[in-house]
Design a protein that fits this description.
This protein has 202 residues and is α/β, with parallel strands linked by helices. It contains five helices and 14 strands. It has one domain: Ribonuclease Z/Hydroxyacylglutathione hydrolase-like (Metallo-beta-lactamase, Chain A). The chain has a six-stranded mixed sheet.
Amino acid sequence: MEITDLSPGGFASACYLVCEGQDAVLIDCSATPAAVKAALDRCGARLAAILCTHGHFDHLLTADALRDHLNVPLWLHEADAELLKDNEKNAFSLFCGNAAFHVRQADRLFGDGEVLTFGSLSCKVLHTPGHSKGSSVFLFGDVAFTGDTLFANGWGRTDLYGGDALSLRHSLQALSALPQTLRIYPGHGGATTLKSALDLIF
C-alpha cells in the first residue's frame, strides 16, 4: 500500500491518497483536483472514492470539485451528514463569516464497524465521536487515518457543533486498545505512531 501525503491543503488540512495497485481512495479532500490527478498518474491508479473523517468544512474544501472532475462518490459517517448543508454546523461561518461555501450531500453514508472495500483496498470504520458526532478513523491494516480525533501532539477541539469532551475521551480510550505500533496519519500535522500520540494523553 502506498500513501501520498497531499498536505497541507487549505486551512492546513491533511489530504492523503492511498493506493494499492490500480485502486485508490482519498482520505479527506483539501487538495486540488490537479494535485490529486497528478498523484494518481504517478501511482498508475484510479480513484474509487473520497472517504471523509468528519464533516467540518476544512476537510471538504474541494469535495465538489473532485467529484465533478474525477466522477467519484463522497463517503461520510451518517452522524455528520447534516453538517454538509449547514455552514454554522460545519464551522465555515465561524472562520469565514458570510462568504459562500456549498457542499453537495454525501453520496454514501457509513456507520461504525463497517468494512469498506474498493478493489484491492479495504478499511474498517471506527466511529470516534467527540470532535464531531460522526468523527471516524479509517483502519487500513497497520495504518490508521485519525482525522481530527487524534494528532501527533494532541486531539481535536470539542467546542464546535456536535463536539463533546467526554465522548472524545472515550474515543481516545478505545483507540488505546489498538496495536501501539499503528502508524497514524492525522487530519492536521505529521504522521506518528499511535503509542507516541497516546503517550502525550494518558
